[in-house]
Design brief:
The structure holds two protein chains of two kinds. By secondary structure, chain A is mostly beta strands. Chain A contains six helices and 31 strands. The longest helix of chain A is centred in the last third of the chain and has 13 residues, at 445-457. Chain B has a seven-stranded mixed beta sheet with strand order 5-4-3-6-7-9-8, with helices on both faces. Classes of the chains: A mainly beta, B alpha/beta. S-adenosylmethionine (SAM) binds at residues 39, 41, 95-97, 100, 117-120, 123, 152-155, 173-176, 188, 251-253 of chain B. Chain B: Keywords: Methyltransferase, Nucleus, RNA-binding, S-adenosyl-L-methionine, Transferase, tRNA processing, tRNA-binding.
């Protein structure tokens, strides 16, 4: 039997107008929908996409004046719509980039003053995007994918280019493959295995080029590639005081323990070096200060790097602090999960964020299926024994956004932690905290009230269990021995 | 491919007896080390590789180049306990197969360390056994002390073994062609992988390629020429390079092609110095 739970918010971003902190808009994706939540006023929510029939009906039914769309609607996402996994707002807050999983698409929206979204383009990538970043000038999207390639795409496709691409059939690899000319690939004199000979014979039979894939129908540039799943991507600019010049870098992390430092465009083919020291996959990298890189993944430590010189500055053990919280896993229906001994407890870092506000300056850390938000003073990153503090949560954190001095956390209420089902129903899927200069934390009542109201109004429900692998994919990056060799 | 039970038994017996025998003067027999031709470079093989070049212990591979450290460092870090070599590997044969090229090059470059990297376990073991035997057979001259072979997936882990700008020569001899377009990402040459070769290479270092598959040759030329870190070396320069000659005649694949009267396509590429930052 399928259980319908309140659908969690898989990802968040926030618009904070400069000098006008009182006009914040939170973007939160739940399943295939994106909600724009005004953080200063209750009941001021917009939703994308608007034009589905359900929404129209609901709007007609609730057509009280000024009732915003999205009010009191029970929406279960139409089957087959792609789930949104990542949201990135442009630095000028005028565009929102959304990545969806099933169709591997990058959608770009223009964002109105009020936060409503208007889709400008939809570009489907050859492989599922797994990391995304925007250049400082907001001109270019950098997109890393499951197969390790990083592409640059213009944020706004040049005029004349189609704004929506049809789903690619089976675009298997980078563009280069399309250049394949089908002259038989080897002569009959070539010595090869039976299998190759067969492939060759088949090629000879097919006179016409075999269409293996559609070329990407939009401007894009392949910048670099790992032969491994790309897990995170960060762009950074350093200014060189001596030369008065600026240097752009691309930092990329992968499932094979690598963190790569490459030069920025137009020299992205030059690898400056690697930060090597992880023993398991790297899932997240974060720059709390331009010259300091923190990385986390399947190891029970966070690594702190002087990434410019590729030096490992510190390893911060997080096993103790994380181990205080029992893993909060979705029941499989096959009885309770076995209780693991603490020493075999595996950690999978699912998020790292800088909380750069004033004296509470912290690094925020989440781990997969651990119902807590950890924080660590940025000033302590290089000290021998930094204290990892925790904020207990009443569910698993899925994403975090730092909105001025508030931290907003998306909580998956469909995985019951210690609470009963009924209690879970009342827990808000969006909660906010502040970290104070003495490193203690507080809930922000005013903001939480708005988030609580928004949570009540946004009544998305669905079979969250079927989304499990998409929402909780980090631990799956761990290698399990692999194929045998003989 | 797993052999017949008794075939496999024979092979295991052979290999244990070989590794236990006191006088390993005999060269290993290839027939006991054959292995399915293709290994998937994308899958998680059970591989051992160092966390970083700093943590790689080369001493078992090049024992006679290992420095025995008299003034023991008292720092008890993992890295400072690793023995050092008097020099670094500078010549790498990527996908070395049964190692024909390595055994031909080693006596020609006695002052350099050569390393073969091979993804298939049995084939790697064959080369390792052959190195042992060759070293013993040549104990008077000390030949073959400068050559070693290890198992690695070079498409993923080159930067774990080599520092930036460490290598002066890389050989890519008769790489698996991966004919089907769908499999082209498995090719050992691509615009993105070429950046990794450039990373581990010294400026002015050379990549040597040879294949009997014209299409693959064109592919390699196209991708290296398109890469801003490489330029193709002229035919005249190629012709006088002793490595080109050896690569044509001494690789196992090269010999097979010779026997069958096939063509061999050679292309070599020099690594440029990195341009200044923009
Ligand atoms: C056709 S053989 C050529 C062997 C040898 N170079 C010669 O010319 O005789 C290609 C070799 O490359 C190896 N190989 C393929 N992919 C590899 C990878 N990613 N890392 C290391 N070796 C690889 C294969 O196992 C195979 O032994």
């Amino acid at each position: 039997m399928t259980v319908y739970d309140r659908f969690p918010f898989s990802c968040l971003d926030c618009s904070i107008p400069e000098g006008n902190e009182n006009h914040r808009i939170l973007f939160a994706a739940s399943g295939p929908k994106i909600f724009s939540i005004n953080l200063e006023k209750k009941s001021n929510i917009q939703v994308w996409p608007q034009a589905d029939n359900q929404a129209k009906r609901a709007d007609q039914e609730n057509d009280d004046h000024g009732e915003p769309p999205g009010k009191k609607r029970k929406l279960s996402p139409p089957p087959g719509s792609p789930n949104i996994l990542k949201l990135t707002l442009s630095h000028n807050r005028k565009h929102l980039v959304a990545v969806s999983s099933e169709d591997k698409c990058i959608r770009v929206f223009s964002v109105s003053e009020q936060g409503s979204l208007d889709q400008l383009s939809q570009r489907c990538m050859p492989k599922r995007p797994s990391a995304i970043a925007l250049t400082w000038d907001d001109d270019t999207i950098f997109c890393g994918d499951k197969f390790g390639d990083v592409y640059a795409l213009p944020l706004l496709p040049p005029s004349g280019e189609p704004i929506g691409t049809p789903l690619p059939d089976d675009m298997e690899a980078s563009q280069e493959e399309q250049k394949e000319l089908f002259i038989p690939s080897a002569t009959n004199l070539t010595v090869h295995t039976a299998r190759n000979r067969r492939a060759l014979e088949n090629q000879a039979k097919i006179k016409k080029p075999v269409k293996t894939k559609e070329p990407l129908k939009f401007s894009h540039q392949l910048l670099l590639g790992h032969v491994s799943m790309l897990t995170d991507l960060t762009l950074v600019t350093l200014s060189d005081e001596n030369m008065g010049s600026k240097r752009n870098y691309i930092l990329t992390a992968d499932r094979d323990e690598h963190i790569r430092v490459s030069r920025g465009v137009p020299q992205a083919h030059i690898i400056e070096g690697f930060c090597l020291g992880h023993k398991e996959f790297v899932s997240r990298i974060c720059l709390p200060r331009p010259e300091i890189l923190v990385s986390g993944g399947g190891d029970d430590f966070l690594a702190v790097w002087d990434w410019v010189n590729r030096g490992l500055k510190n390893k911060i053990n997080i096993h103790g602090a994380v181990g205080e919280f029992p893993k909060n896993v979705r029941p499989t229906g096959k009885g309770d999960p076995p209780v693991r001994e603490p020493e075999e407890r595996k950690i999978a870092v699912s998020g790292l964020w800088a909380y750069p506000q004033g004296p509470g300056e912290s690094l925020l850390v989440t781990c997969e299926e651990v119902p807590a938000l950890f924080h660590l003073a940025i000033a302590d990153l290089e000290s021998p024994d930094p204290v990892l503090r925790s904020i207990p949560l009443n569910g698993n954190p899925l994403d975090v956004v730092v909105a001025g001095n508030s931290v907003i956390v998306s909580i998956d209420t469909s995985v019951k932690s210690s609470c009963t089902g009924e209690e879970m129903e009342r827990i808000s899927r969006l909660q906010s905290f502040v970290i104070k200069s003495d490193k203690s934390w507080n809930r922000i009542d005013e903001l939480n009230e708005i988030l609580y109201e928004a949570d009540k109004e946004i009544n998305t429900v669905g079979d969250v269990g079927s989304m499990h692998d998409i929402l909780y994919g980090i631990e799956n990056l761990r290698k399990r021995g692999g194929e045998s060799d003989t | 491919m797993p052999g017949q039970p008794n075939k496999r038994q024979k092979r295991d017996d052979y290999r244990t007896s070989l590794s236990q025998s006191e006088h390993r003067i005999q060269l290993p027999k290839k027939k006991f080390y054959r292995q399915r031709a293709h290994a998937n470079p994308f899958s998680d093989h059970v591989l051992t590789y160092p966390e970083s070049p700093d943590t790689m212990d080369w001493s078992p591979y090049y024992p006679s180049f290992t420095i025995t450290n008299e003034n023991e460092s008292h720092e008890d870090t993992e890295i400072s306990n690793i023995p050092h070599l008097s020099k670094r590997v500078e010549i790498a044969d990527i996908g070395c197969g049964y190692g024909g090229l390595l055994f031909a090059l080693a006596p020609r470059f006695p002052d350099q360390l050569l390393l073969g990297l091979e993804i298939r376990t049995s084939v790697t073991e064959f080369v390792q056994e052959k190195i042992k035997a060759m070293r013993q057979q040549n104990s008077e001259t000390g030949l073959y002390q400068n050559v070693a072979c290890l198992r690695a997936n070079t498409m993923k882990f080159l930067p774990n073994f080599f520092y930036k700008a460490q290598l002066s020569k890389i050989f890519l001899c008769f790489p698996d062609p991966h004919f089907k377009a769908r499999k082209h990402k498995a090719r050992i040459v691509s615009s993105t992988l070429n950046s990794e070769y450039a990373y581990v290479m010294k400026p002015a270092g050379v990549i040597y390629t040879i294949t009997d598959v014209e299409d693959l040759h064109n592919w390699m030329v196209e991708h290296f020429e398109a890469h801003p870190s490489f330029e193709r070396i002229s035919k005249t320069e190629e012709d006088v390079d002793v490595c080109v000659k050896i690569m044509k005649s001494e690789t196992e694949e090269g010999k097979k092609v010779e026997r069958n009267g096939g063509h061999k396509f050679v292309a070599c590429f020099r690594r440029f110095e990195d341009p200044p930052w923009p």
